[in-house]
């Protein structure tokens, strides 16, 4: 444990699994009080148990990021439990159906956009009034390499490009109130989301991995350290940025 985020409260959505869990654990390990938010109670509780077993401080809040009253309650619980909010990592997301655009259903389109994009907007809507009360508040939104290039299904790519646009728009608007807002754009990361795809389309994932200059997928902790850097005072002049963490694939 160290003290980089001591006395800070960090809220992480989608923290019951994968990248969100790794970020929640990283913040806790570095001294933050962590609000573990997820729709999945089992995964979220497991993250809290792991943080507590390692000597950290965390609380679980069940949330559907597409439900405005859930999101409002999530932010209120964070502030009531730990007296304020300093950092938010808006990360919950789904891959959705990978079918070609012409075969996509309205339901899948709407679900991917609702969770991946509207969920990030809703979270910021309730986080920002709390973060502007804080000295040096920071938001990191999870986009994707698919937010910077055509690297996923049509709805996924559209949702992740949307997260980049939303991040830039909010970053410019809220900078003078002392909040920095950035996005992280991971390439392929070894998480349950990718493991599910691996089971269904192992060839596609193997091909994707071969395309990586580093010749491997990222581990969730490699995204977590980037999120933590973006949220830290070390990145005090980084704002409105969409940072690829993709092993050089975009190069
Ligand atoms: P994951 O499936 O391991 O974790 C996603 C978490 O989000 C789960 O715990 C899930 O329960 C939660 N979630 C889903 N819908 C929710 C909702 N409506 N409300 C609240 N929580 C909800 O996936 P991951 O790979 O860790 O993905 C995390 C984020 O990173 C996503 O936004 C994803 O698009 C993005 N991403 C992942 C990769 C990758 O290769 N794994 C690459 C680029 C971007």
UniProtKB/TrEMBL annotation:
One of its GO terms (molecular function) is oxidoreductase activity. Keywords: NAD, Oxidoreductase. PROSITE patterns: ADH_SHORT. Residues 8-192 form the Ketoreductase domain. InterPro entries: KR_dom, NAD(P)-bd_dom_sf, Sc_DH/Rdtase_CS, SDR_fam. The keyword NAD applies. It comes from the Archaea. The keyword Lyase does not apply. NCBIfam families: PRK07231.1, PRK12826.1-2. Belongs to the short-chain dehydrogenases/reductases (SDR) family. This is NAD(P)-dependent dehydrogenase, short-chain alcohol dehydrogenase family. It comes from Natrinema hispanicum.
């Amino acid at each position: 444990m160290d003290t980089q985020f001591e006395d800070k409260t960090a809220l992480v959505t989608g923290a019951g699994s994968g990248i969100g869990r790794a970020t929640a654990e990283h913040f806790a390990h570095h001294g933050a009080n962590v609000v573990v938010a997820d729709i999945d109670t089992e995964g979220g509780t497991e993250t809290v148990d792991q943080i507590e077993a390692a000597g950290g401080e965390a609380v679980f809040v069940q949330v559907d990021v597409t439900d405005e009253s859930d999101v409002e309650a999530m932010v209120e619980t964070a502030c009531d439990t730990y007296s304020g909010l300093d950092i938010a990592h808006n990360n919950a997301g789904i891959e959705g159906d990978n079918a070609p655009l012409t075969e996509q259903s309205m339901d899948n389109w709407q679900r991917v956009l609702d969770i991946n994009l509207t969920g990030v907007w809703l979270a910021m809507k309730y986080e920002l009034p709390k973060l502007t009360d804080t000295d040096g508040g920071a938001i990191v939104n999870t986009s994707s390499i698919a937010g910077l290039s055509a690297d996923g299904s049509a709805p996924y790519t559209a949702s992740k490009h949307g997260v980049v646009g939303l991040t830039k728009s909010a970053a410019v608007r809220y900078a003078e109130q002392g909040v920095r807002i950035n996005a992280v754009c991971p390439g392929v990361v070894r998480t349950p989301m990718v493991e599910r795809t691996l089971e269904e389309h192992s060839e596609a994932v193997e091909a994707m991995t071969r395309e990586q200059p580093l010749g491997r997928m990222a581990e969730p902790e490699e995204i977590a350290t980037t999120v933590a850097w973006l949220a830290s005072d070390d990145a005090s002049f980084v704002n409105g940025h969409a940072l690829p963490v993709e092993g050089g694939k975009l190069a």
